[in-house]
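Notebook, p. 212. Picked up where the previous page left off. The plan for this session was modest: take the two constructs that came back from the sequencing core last week, fold each one, and keep the raw output in the notebook itself so nobody has to go hunting through shared drives later. Recording the first one now, exactly as returned: residue sequence, then the structure token string.
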Amino acid sequence: MAKKRPALWRLALDNIWIVICLVAAGSCLALTVQLLLQTPPLDTPSPNIRLALGVPALFGTLAGLYGLVAGSVLALRRAKERRQANQLRRLQRRVDQLDSLRRGQRARLEELSALREVATVVNQESDFAIIAEKVLELVHGLLEPVESTIFLLDEERDELRPFGQYAEGKFRGEGKVLTRNIPEFSLSEFESHSVICRVHGQELHAIVPLKVEERIPGVLFMVWPTDARPAQEQVEEFNRTRRRLLQEITHHISLAVKTKYLHTKAVVDALTRLYSRSHFNSQMQAAIEYAERTGEGFSLIVADIDHFKHVNDRYGHDTGDVILRKVAKRIRDALRKYDSAYRYGGEEIAILLPRTNMAQALGIGERLRRMVEQRKFRSGEGRLIDVTISVGVSQFKPGDNPETLFKRADQQLYRAKEEGRNRVCPAAA
């Protein structure tokens, strides 16, 4: 670091012309006094010579004094201009700071507005698929990723499976997510990191856990393009500009996942992953009320696994549970999006079919029967077991209540069993 110059020396250098004029004026003044009032520095006493030398020296003194005054005026002007320039620079820096603060406040306001929209969606919507779509769309507007995907834990397979994805300006629901393997990571990493951010090839990946109490039933996975900078520098920029907002958004998604998780625990049977009997009762009542209000009918299927007691007695209850779970999954996967299946009790399954008449319901029941019959089911010990189901079908009639509608379908189920099982029987119109 350069040594700082003394103040007087710095002042002299900054006003060199004033110094020169001051020296010149002083020298000329001294010469003038010596020539006019004292013995001149010449070997002659002639007054004419003293006068001839004294007059120019006097004019030199006046010129030096003029230069001194003019230089002082210019120096003062330059000093004033420098002060004004310094003040202007300070004001400009202040303006830049205020502008940066304003932009930061505006960006934060936009973030808070988006977070409020996210919270509103989470609080007002009950369908997690709708929540996921709306929230991921808001995330793209704020953080501008190439792709964002919500993965939820499949407890049957104990693996993360894609639930919804927003990419290329549109949302893709479960089953339509573009194929992409989430980078390997361990849930234990979240014990020390709330966000996992890494550069992977030409992409920057961020994985954020969706926490429900002490469990992690899912993650939010996001992708951004990388550039030529070192990976560590890009990760640091992510932590500085995106991390906090992403965590705030993920908190709201976690609340939605928690609601979905608690709702699932309340209305979904743990073994079959079908809806519970209590949920069936409430949904049946709601379907009847809707049909009476709109005149739009629906149908009910009641199915039962044939000879299920024999399966339990011969192969054991563990094998019976495996068969029941696989049959339930087969039925659940084969239904239309707006149909719903319930474990009514034991191995008995009830299926609500909205906007479906008797002919359509019979077709669905027959399709389900064939799908179960045509597939051999493997027990937990690896045995192949033939399984069939019997099906009873009824259609809503004006004046029906849950008990009468279910009773007609259940009667047809028993009729199917009495007639030899592995068949579909409709209730009388």
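Okay, moving on. Second construct, recorded in the same format:
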Amino acid sequence: MAGNWKMFKTIPEAVDLVQKLKPLIAHHNDREILVCPPFTALMAVSQAAQGSSIVVGAQNMNDHLNGAYTGEVAPFMLKDAGASFVLIGHSERRQYYGETDASIQRKTALALEQGLSPVVCVGETLQEREEGKTNAVVERQIEALRGLTTVQVSSVVVAYEPVWAIGTGKTATPGQAQDVHKFIRQKLNALFGSASESLRILYGGSMKPDNVDQLMAQPDIDGGLVGGASLKADDFARIVGFQSLKS
């Protein structure tokens, strides 16, 4: 379960959230728990998470190793601050900052080269879904992984985030989410064969305490990329502790 804190939390607030979360998830040793704070809080959160099962990721990185790119952050800087994961190609980055499939491909390759595990985000807009283009859009975005080795792909996580269900209060039904997750798994299998079997696919469209059990019951949903609900320790702990068994 991954929590994307987006542009929220000061350093003290971020540390407080981790400190509240740690005892709530201490008994979930079988769950992988990732939090992605703002850049400013990465090091403090990494330090606060020590001694727990929480790992830390960044929300973005530049597609160059270093250089004259004012305002940008390089992957080695993220590692230096304690990150082991990085979100790549989130829909908000695509929508507001013009990130392309090509730049996402470069970022993914560079993250892997630098020892970061990329969480590569894919998903369609409401218009694309209504026009019946969901699979075509997702397949195009998955192509950003083409060219990775079978060793590299074992460190990749894919997150399906229907753009129309992010921050809107709308949520794909468990069946809708499962259909796309199954399609993604089939495409990954076509690209990487058996090497893709260990690759996790997260659902990232308004996962909440009241829908996590139904979503996680789906056979091809391996976890969640959680937005607003990850900003409250009790809510995120409930999501981490989902009760459903796979069907």
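Notes on construct two before I forget. The longest helix spans residues 174-192.
Flagging for discussion at group meeting.
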